[in-house]
Amino acid sequence: MNYCFELRMKVRDYECDLQGIVNNANYQHYIEHTRHEFLLSEGISFAKLHEQGVDPVVARLNMAFKTPLRSGDEFICKLAVRKEGIKYVFIQDIFRASDMKCAIKATVDTVCVVNGRLSGSELFDEVFAPYFVENK
């Protein structure tokens, strides 16, 4: 996979469940934070987009859990993006940093709501164009 962005993070104690592994819901937080940091790295503020009436929203999310992360584990969230019609599909995989074992594989379909209406985004088309990967 040709990832265009990656973000390193560390599991915090309170993100783990009784089994001592990261609770499944926290992976969604990790990948969302990674998407927001990707936007910031491209000079796009999620908050400013909202102020301008542009709201990128998740339309569909699929996560496959591979290897659990545990408290204190460092991990790397990797991101790639492709375009399908008006959707932006983020391919987001998380790897445990110590051995690069895959923790999750995720795809996140996002769409833009502009002033309350489903719409394409010229800004995202322009900014993401150099990163688009082909459909597989």
Strand content: 35-45%
Fraction of helical residues: 10-25%
Overall 3D shape:
globular
Mean pLDDT: 96
The end-to-end span amounts to 10 Å
Low-confidence stretches: none
Number of strands: 6
Q: What's the order of the H and E elements?
A: EHHEEEEEH
Structural class: alpha+beta
| Count of helix runs | 3
Return Rg in Å: 15 Å
Largest sheet report: 6 strands, antiparallel
3D structure, described in words:
It is a single chain. The chain is of the alpha+beta class. The protein has three helices and six strands, in the order βααβββββα. The chain has helices at residues 24-41, 46-51, 122-128, and strands at residues 5-10, 54-65, 74-84, 87-96, 102-114, 117-119. Strands 1, 2, 3, 4, 5 and 6 form a six-stranded antiparallel beta sheet that branches. The longest helix is centred in the first third of the chain and has 18 residues, at 24-41. The chain is globular, with a radius of gyration of 15 Å. The chain starts with a strand and ends in an 8-residue tail after the last helix.
How are the elements arranged and paired?
Elements: E1 5-10, H1 24-41, H2 46-51, E2 54-65, E3 74-84, E4 87-96, E5 102-114, E6 117-119, H3 122-128
Antiparallel strand pairs: 1-3, 2-5, 3-4, 4-5, 5-6
